[in-house]
Automatic annotation (TrEMBL):
Protein name as it appears in the record: Uncharacterized protein
Matches recorded under InterPro entries: P-loop_NTPase
SUPFAM superfamilies given in the database record: P-loop containing nucleoside triphosphate hydrolases
Amino acid sequence: ALWVVIYDPVWNTRMGEFRIDTNDFLQMAGRAGRPITNPITGKVFTEGRVVVLSTDQREHMYVRSHLINQEPEPVISSFERDLVYRFHGFLLYRNANEVRRLLLKSLARLSKKELVKAFRALERMGFLVEGELSELGKFVAELNLHPFAAMRFIKGLKSWRNAEDFGKRACQLVFAEVANETSSLPPHVREYNDLLKWRFVEKPYLNGTLLLVNYLAPQTIRDRAAWYMYSFEKLAEFTGFKEHALSIMRERFVLEGLSEVERAISKLSSLLQSKEAYIEVAIREFDSSSNTGKSNWLGLDVYVEGAPRGWTEPVKVVKLSGRRVDAVLPENSALLSK
């Protein structure tokens, strides 16, 4: 390419606003100067130029210092912040002495005192015996659970005699405890329902409202929470608390069965009662006999009259029936104006 123009060094996404980093900039700028042949004269161009547009002095200084001068982002390691968790994973493949020798020669800059402290913590919890992982320690490491979180769970498990309702107790105990760990931050189960309040964002659009979807948070949180519930269920089984494990399993099934489809139907239905509603879809199928494009929106089947395959613009919802959404192209659509 002869020219590469980067219109804005700041990107806006559904996850927030962030600056282009040096690697992304170099990847985009690398297109300038790639050999290109003029289709008329046949001349081959092997040089190109990169233009970065900034809107204010602050952006200009960032572009100049970080991007044009190719200043790399600092490399930050969190390895030494949670040595007990890191060592626990290493011990699946090496004994304590081998791990100690390896890390003292590494770039981690760890002292013998730090290593000894981490190993003794694993020994006190019963996960490390004579330099090797115990059966319990190995099982916890294979689940990739933080040893401190696993130990707190086991203590709670042993102190809770009523197995029938332990699943509900586990939701409170486990997630509240694990959320304090720096290596992993699974949410409390209640946070999933709270976050669903922010699942949809309403924005004015034409003569109605465009219903945007926050695709990131709820599904990520639910999956994370369900994974921890599954891990603790298996840990309860391994330690002999089978009835407690069944109680956790029932709560896990409830968590995994939370229906986002019903929430989407409810939100869209309430919006249609007072406003004209629009949703964003990507048409993947097209039925030429009925001149209808088909898509899926949060588990709902969407049928859009006149929408061709590849359509990615908002569509106007005209009817909601169960899990079926009937929609049409907006009045200002270029397709309708033809």
